[in-house]
């Protein structure tokens, strides 16, 4: 079969990224221009500033992605771009740029779901991974437990009823004075602490999650006792959320009789979460996958991979493609 080269574009939040991926699995280039240092001083992403920075970065990032892959736009088979979910202004920059490229080059346009991109990051790192499997998507905007039935068919088994897990990490980090983005900072600090503080965990009959109770408990504890050991607090927070993630994932695995579990999204970069899930290989006979660190957080290689599975299944878009900030998975 002929090789298929997809150019992926990602601009849903604060990373401007363009990548070229061969046959959905092999990264030829993955340029990521992060705006973290710009948003850091505001303690979170400022949507208007994000859009403006995407506009300034996107042409150059695209040029670099093509150069690094040693390709020209004529060598590409299709252009995949994230059209949701995400910040509307930020998404519109990538979508408009992809439409302009499509118009100028006549290469097919493939609107791609950002969450499906996070799942597909696993296909790049784990060449043997194929559906069906369970995927736990844990990011700044999402907490979803999904049954990946095949490359294009998804069933949401459980999701958060309040905060996304990454939001909880970021909020806790801000309150205890670690700054933005909080996830990596909590990850580092927790390594020096003991999970010796009991925090409330929320359970539901079904496979849904809730993190606002744990988050609020940590914040209240810190307010009442500012001298509390922050490393212990970070370790206890990580343990409490990880216990809930593992409990629901194992319940889903049992219900569906599936032993293959993949993690995805920015929070799947967390070293404690990765190690606890990996233990399930020994204790529960599961096979655990996660993307390499650079592919956990937002990047365009994962969009090119998910775009590849759209493209080879005949799913393409036209110039009517628009940004959909609240796009659901599997749409
Ligand atoms: O997937 P992502 O880049 O963006 C969304 O699609 O939301 O995820 C960003 C989130 C942020 O909340 C960030 O704090 C969190 O991922 N994150 C982490 C780690 N690295 C990034 N959370 C916990 N531990 C980490 N090492
Ligand atoms: Zn993301």
Q: What would you say about this model in short?
A:
The chain has 331 residues and is an alpha/beta fold. Helices cover 44% and strands 19% of the residues.
Task: Describe the overall structure.
It is built from 11 helices and 10 strands. The model has no long low-confidence stretch (mean pLDDT about 95). The longest helix is centred in the C-terminal third of the chain and has 27 residues, at about 230-255. It is globular. The strands form 2 sheets. A 5-stranded mixed β-sheet has the order 3-2-1-4-5, sandwiched between helices. By secondary structure, it is of the alpha/beta class. It has 2 domains: about 5-120 and about 295-310, ATPase, nucleotide binding domain (Nucleotidyltransferase, domain 5, 2-Layer Sandwich); about 130-290, ATPase, nucleotide binding domain (Nucleotidyltransferase, domain 5). 5'-O-[(R)-(carboxyoxy)(hydroxy)phosphoryl]adenosine binds near residues 13, 141, 181 and 266.
> Per CATH, what is the topology of the largest domain?
Nucleotidyltransferase, domain 5
Quickly name the level 1 CATH class of the largest domain: Alpha Beta
Oligomeric status: single chain
Give the distance, in angstroms, between the N- and C-terminal Cα atoms: 28 Å
Our estimate of the beta-strand percent is 15-25%
CATH superfamily of the largest domain: ATPase, nucleotide binding domain
Q: How many separate helices?
A: 11
The hetero compounds bound to this protein are: 5'-O-[(R)-(carboxyoxy)(hydroxy)phosphoryl]adenosine, zinc ion
Structural class: alpha/beta
CATH A-level architecture of the largest domain: 2-Layer Sandwich
């Amino acid at each position: 079969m002929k090789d298929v080269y997809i150019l992926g574009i990602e601009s849903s939040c604060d990373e401007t990224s363009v990548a070229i991926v061969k046959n959905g699995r092999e990264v030829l280039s993955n340029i990521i221009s992060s705006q973290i240092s710009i948003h850091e001083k505001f303690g979170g992403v400022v949507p208007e500033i994000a859009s403006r920075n995407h506009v300034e970065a996107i042409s150059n990032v695209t040029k670099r992605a093509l150069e690094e892959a040693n390709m020209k736009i004529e060598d590409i088979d299709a252009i995949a771009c994230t059209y949701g979910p995400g910040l509307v202004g930020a998404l519109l920059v990538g979508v408009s740029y992809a439409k302009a490229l499509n118009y100028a080059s006549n290469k097919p346009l493939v609107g791609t779901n950002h969450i499906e991109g996070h799942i597909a990051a696993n296909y790049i790192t784990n060449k043997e991974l194929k559906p069906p499997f369970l995927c736990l998507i844990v990011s700044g905007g999402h907490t979803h437990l999904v049954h990946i039935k095949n490359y294009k068919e998804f069933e949401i088994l459980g999701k958060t009823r309040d905060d996304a897990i990454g939001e909880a990490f970021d909020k806790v980090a801000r309150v205890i004075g670690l700054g933005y983005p909080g996830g990596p900072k909590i990850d580092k600090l927790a390594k020096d602490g003991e999970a010796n503080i009991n925090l409330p965990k929320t359970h539901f009959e079904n496979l849904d999650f809730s993190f606002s109770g744990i988050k609020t408990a940590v914040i209240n504890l810190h307010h009442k006792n500012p001298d509390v050991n922050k490393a212990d607090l970070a370790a206890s927070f990580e343990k409490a959320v990880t216990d809930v993630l593992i409990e629901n994932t194992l319940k889903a695995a049992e219900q569906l009789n599936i032993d293959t579990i993949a993690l995805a999204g920015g929070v799947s970069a967390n070293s404690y979460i990765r190690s606890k899930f990996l233990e399930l290989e020994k204790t529960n006979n599961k096979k655990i996958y996660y993307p390499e660190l650079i592919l956990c957080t937002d990047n365009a290689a994962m969009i090119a991979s998910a775009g590849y599975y759209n493209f080879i299944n005949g799913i393409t878009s036209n110039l009517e493609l628009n940004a959909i900030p609240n796009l659901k998975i599997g749409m």
